[in-house]
Amino acid sequence: MNNVFPYRLYLVISEDACNGQPLNKVAEMAILGGVDIIQLREKFDTSEVFLKKAMSLQEVLYKYNVPLIINDNLDVARRSKAYGIHVGNSDLPPTVIREGWPECQCLGYSIEYLKQLISKETLVSDYLGISPIFDTLTKRDTVTQWGLAGLRQIRGITDKPLVAIGNMNAQNAYDVMKAGADCLAVVSAICGAADPEKAAGEIRGNIERAL
Ligand code: TZP
Ligand code: MG
C-alpha cells in the first residue's frame, strides 16, 4: 500500500463480462458495494469504441471519485484522462509508458514470471498484478498459477502494492489477503453476479476482516 495505490477492491470490467447488463450500471452498483478502483479492459474493441466507453464510464466514476485505469491502450488512457494504465508482460513495457505518458499517475504491471520482479519494469511500476492466483475461465492464456504459496513468496521479495487476480471471490478473499495481497481484482464474481452491489459488498467485507 502507498499513496498512489491505497485501494482494496479493484473491479476489472468489460462489456462482455456484464452478461447484458449495462457496463456503467454494473460499475455504479459495484462502487456502492465497496469497489474503490476500476479498470476498463476491452481486448477486442477498436480504440474509438474503447475511448467512447472510457469517457462514458468516467462520468460515473467522477461522481464517486473512483479512479479509472485503462488496460493496455496508452492512447485511450491519455485521451480519457484516466488515473493510469495497466499492462501485461507482453504489452508496451512500463519504462516505455513512463516516457510516452509522463503524467501517468498510476502504472500497473502484471507479474507472470518470477524473474520480472527484479527488473526495471517492476521498479517503475506503482503496483503489481499477481496474475493469476487461481485458474479462471475469464483468462485462458496464462503462464504461472501462483496460488497462495506463490503470492506469499512474492510478498517476501517486494514491497510494491500487490493486486491478486484470477478467480477472486467472497470465499477466498480472506485467505488471499492473509497471504500478502494488498488488493483483490475481480471480474466475474462481480460483473457476472445477479446483484453486483451485494457481491462486491461480500468480498469487501472479507477483505476488511483480513486487514
Ligand atoms: N488477468 C489474470 S486473471 C484475469 C486477468 C484479467 C481474469 C480474472 O477474472 P475472474 O473472472 O475474476 O477470474
Ligand atoms: Mg496483454
From TrEMBL:
Reactions catalysed according to its record: 4-methyl-5-(2-phosphooxyethyl)-thiazole + 4-amino-2-methyl-5-(diphosphooxymethyl)pyrimidine + H(+) = thiamine phosphate + diphosphate; 2-[(2R,5Z)-2-carboxy-4-methylthiazol-5(2H)-ylidene]ethyl phosphate + 4-amino-2-methyl-5-(diphosphooxymethyl)pyrimidine + 2 H(+) = thiamine phosphate + CO2 + diphosphate; 2-(2-carboxy-4-methylthiazol-5-yl)ethyl phosphate + 4-amino-2-methyl-5-(diphosphooxymethyl)pyrimidine + 2 H(+) = thiamine phosphate + CO2 + diphosphate
Tell me which residues make up the Thiamine phosphate synthase/TenI domain.
9-190
Q: In which pathway does it act?
A: Cofactor biosynthesis; thiamine diphosphate biosynthesis; thiamine phosphate from 4-amino-2-methyl-5-diphosphomethylpyrimidine and 4-methyl-5-(2-phosphoethyl)-thiazole: step 1/1
Is this entry keyworded GTP-binding? no
> Does this UniProt record's set of keywords contain Magnesium?
yes
Q: Which CDD domains match?
A: TMP_TenI
Q: Which free-text remark accompanies the cofactor?
A: Binds 1 Mg(2+) ion per subunit.
Q: Which NCBIfam families match?
A: thiE (TIGR00693)
The protein, known as: Thiamine-phosphate synthase
Organism encoding this protein: Pinibacter soli
Starting at the broadest rank, the lineage of the source organism is: Bacteria, Pseudomonadati, Bacteroidota, Chitinophagia, Chitinophagales
This chain is encoded by the gene named thiE
